[in-house]
Amino acid sequence: MRVRDVKVHFPIKRGILKRTVGQVRAVDGISLDIRAGETLSIVGESGCGKTTFGQALVRVLEPTHGSIEYFGANGQGTDIAHLGETELRPYRSDIRMIFQDPFASLNARRRVIDIIGESLRNFGVSDEREVESRVAAMLRKVGLRPEYMNRFPYAFSGGERQRIGIARALAVHPRLVVADECVSALDVSIQAQTLNLMQDLQEEFALTYVFISHDLSVVEYISDRVAVMYAGRVVELSDTEALFARPRHPYTAALLAAVPRPDPRRARTGAATRLKGEVADPANRPTGCAFHPRCPFATDRCRSEEPEMRPVGAAMVACHHSEKLDLKGVTANAA
Ligand code: SF4
Q1: pTM, rounded to two decimals
Q2: ipTM > 0.95?
Q3: Domain ranges, ordered by start, for the chain
Q4: Which residue among 175, 249, 292, 314 has its CA within the 20 to 30 Å range from the CA of 152?
């Protein structure tokens, strides 16, 4: 997928006449490529726009601006950013989403065979015996017994429900899967099992993942590359190993410092789980670099001039001063 200058803005309406008085710039100009077969994680604090961006990629939302060129199995690119529902139909089975909440995302009044079978029926599998055999096969793939297909969601644990959610997404053999905080509602041990399952399925089905998460430990484990979002934009895009070994943007460094981990190579505060200061308001974005009110390195230039993404080392970074900064001492509370 080739994403160029994607914006998703929502109007703010007030009064009985519903006059537009401003706009929320939830996603504010993202450009990146998603490579076939990789896991690209999108990280950032709540409110940074990562879920909205994921919804734009799967076209649950139509971007206000920009292009999303999807390259199908034949290698041909199509800009799906502004297609109508009928034109989108051929791409709906290729690009699927796994949702965060395994309790809310499954209809409690439908049996598993109907939940997974619905995707198949929607994409043209009309023979009920074929639906049943494909649902059974999919359940086996995600480690559930096929005879469970006649049960309702309440009969399953959180981890099992998320497996059903994964089976539903993969039943129609997609190529790209956007997983939005898909393990964050699960216990840590179940998270690990679910991540391992997703990796196995990625290999088996040659899947590309866009993995949206605020949990950097999970991201480090599963990703090939990471895009760090702040205030609707990507501020750092890098290979996972390079990003965790040497973050190039002060926001990335502060996010990493907020993860408690016993690693003597990295300076950590150990206890903090939240960064100091408020996340930038997408309805009232700070001038210049949106991170400047929280950045310990901010200069006058940062307050007036918006940094563009540019190569710094092996990463792409949106920071005026990245090369000159010593980020080793950055803590979650330094901002
Ligand atoms: Fe900090 Fe300035 Fe870089 Fe923004 S551009 S992250 S304010 S140093």
Answers
A1: 0.91
A2: yes
A3: 2-94+174-324, 108-173
A4: 175
